[in-house]
Every structure is written in structure tokens, then in C-alpha cells.
Amino acid sequence: MADLRGIKTSVQQVAEAIGIALKVEVEIVDNKLNIVGGTGVYQDMLGMKEEKGNLRGNYLYARTLRVGKTQYVADALADRNYDEKGAGGTVYGERAEICTPIILKGRPIGIIGLVAFSEEQKEILSDTNRNMIGFVERMAELLAAKADQQETLENAEESRDEMTTVLETAHEGIFALDQTGYVKHCNAAAAALLKTTKRELVGTHISKLMPDSPAAKVLKTGVGYTENEEVLRVGRDNLHFIIAVKPYMKGDEIQGIVVSFRDVTEANKPAAGTESEENGKEREQLISNHCDMNKTLSEQVKDFEREVIIRKMKQCGGVKETVARELGLSRATLYRKLAELDID
To answer: Where do the DSSP E strands lie in the chain?
Structure first.
């Protein structure tokens, strides 16, 4: 959820810029009435609550959050619902104010207040030629866009971290190559199976890593494959793997490939034959969902997470505490994921 406190540096910069440009005082609060930006007296109140944090109250800021529209108080001293002082006075000596909600995706996430403490500042707020309301509403849109951008970035980072955790719990080696054939990401299992380290593996070209593998062709054709037995030369050893390769796309353009592999001797153990076959099918479906060229990156991430969590739930008999521990998640994060991904 977008939060102005997550961009408090930008909020304060906007407050100061408005104050300098218009020569009035500025107060910016979030949707819980926390003061997150301001000039003058309000700058000394950063982190404090406006209107004592009472969102159900009938004073200016709480009222503006509920209404979701700009409020103009031409004479704060005469307005008994401006603040707790009532008619005849204001808490800090305010005389007039333009109060505008910061709206994101149809809901208020905060307020910008342009505040007059003198008759000269009152005239600035009431100057129709300068269109103060239009100006502050544009500033509110700017902050909403900034908060939205920050939320998107945080969600992407969270998804990336969660996916990294999930990949590190996989028994199969997994690595991703960019469209030029260089390894971008890999898990610890991939490095262990190839008898190297993650640091050495990242940046290696496929021609060195898999010189005789058909995987390189997938970068050109966009046609992947599954359950292919291949031999990779690692040092003096010939290592036998079962390999699956899927391209990941952006529109019609191949962005790279994802390679999943496991030791062929593990796959062919008699006691685990059926289980290995099922795991192979699950892994194939997992990669397929993750690399669906018809879905957005966000959708692919959710599909990937959902498949991995469902598989882990089956392995752990539905014991959520065990699932959370093995996936490296807190129980709260797991429960949130279960709700977000509609997993019973």
C-alpha cells in the first residue's frame, strides 16, 4: 500500500518548493494524519499527529480525507470546524487554508495544505488569477505519482527477494541467461552441481558452460525443451544431467532462457523413479508458468510463487509452519501469500 512516509524526503522537498514559490506555509500529512512534510511551524512538528490523529473528527483534515475533495477555508478564525480552537481562534494562528487530498487509485493517501498566517498570505490564497487550487492539485498529483512509483519498486523488490528465496530451496540447479547467452542469475544448487561457485558461474557464457548443448539454439529459435539427457564437460569430468530449457519473452522478442537441470543418477534412482518423474513434470509446469510469453512479469512472478508454494505444501503435508521455514519466509508472510495467491 502506497505510503507518503515511504517518500518522506520527496514530500519535504515538495513542501519547501511550494513554500518558496508561493510564499505561504505548507503542511503535508498522510492518510493517518501523521505530519510528513511542512514549512514554518509545521516543519518542527514532523512525525507528530495533526488533529490528534482523529480520523472520525469533523475538523478540516479529517473531513477532507473523508470527502476526497479540495476544501477552501477563506476565514479560519471564523470557522468553528477548522480546528479544536473553534470559532474566534486557531491553534497556531492560521487565518486561511486550501486543503487538497492526495488521491491515488481512487483513495486519499494524504493531504497538502497551503496555509496563510497573515493578511498578505490570505490574499495570495484567494488570488483567482494565480489559481492556487489548481496549482496545489497538480502538486498533489505529483506526490501521488511518486508514491505509486515507490510502491511499485518496493513490490518488485519484495517479489524478487521472495523468488530468490524460493529458488534457493530448489533441489534442481537453475540459472537464467540473457539474450546474449551470459548467465545473469543462478541458485546455489546450480553452482554445486557444476562444481563451482555462484560468483564464478554468473557472467559465464553458454558456449563455455554448455558447448555442445542444444540450449544455445533456444536463444535463437525460442523453442524450449524438457527432460533432455545431456553430458557437460566440467574440468576433467563428464557430468550427466537431465535438462529443461525455456525461453522468456517480451512480446515476440526473446529476452533470454531459463535452464533447469538435475543429476541423471538422482533422477534414475529406482526407489524414487515415480517421484522423480512427478517432480520433473512439476518443474516443467513451474518453468512454463513462469515464462509464459502472454503474461506480464507481475503475473509470471505470482504464478511461479503459487506453484512453488503449492508444491511445498504437498511435500510438508500442509503444515504451514514447516512450509514457511523451508521457504525461508515468516509465518505472517506465508499467510499473506496464501491469501494473495488464493491458496487454500
So the answer is: 25-30, 35-38, 71-73, 96-104, 107-116, 173-178, 183-186, 225-234, 237-250, 253-263
